[in-house]
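Section 5.1 Outputs to date
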Amino acid sequence: MTLSGHELACLRGGRRVLHGLSFDAAGGAALALRGPNGVGKSSLLRLIAGLVPLEAGELTLSGGEADTPVAEQAHYLGHLDALKPGLSVEENLGFWATFLGDGAPPRAAIDDALDAVGLLDIATLPARYLSAGQRRRLALARLAAVSRPVWLLDEPTSALDADGQARLFALIETHLARGGIVIAATHVDLPFTVRDLKLERLA
């Protein structure tokens, strides 16, 4: 499986942030987006996720579901954790797992995903009481709860302590071992093999 972008261009707020960008991200490998703030790392992830329009170019996922848009075969983890404070930890994850998957998931899948990010013991706690790191872990649990071949991660280690980062990296390594694709915008070194895609500001 390979996710490819060919001559991609993107406008954000009337400003062209990407132009003529091409890349290949193969299954079983991680692609790290590098570069200073404002060069379009987040925009590229949001473009692949279908959250901003593609001004020019083409995105393809060879080996994926041919009749399904790339965005619907991808998990997108942005800067916002998208949680409802009045719902419990397990209810929040259950909502997203149902929304992103093919109906309500079995309880065991929710428990396994919460266990993977270290939140199973507070599954019934309302999300309003979570720390920033716990909120981030709950957002990450969506990756484990619903299987999608492409993971788009925007600064995924943000707010995570050492244990949270270790759990994130374990999730990523398992996904890659299964042939999944990971594209991550990050300023930290990742403890597994990555290929860098360096973005530069447009003149």
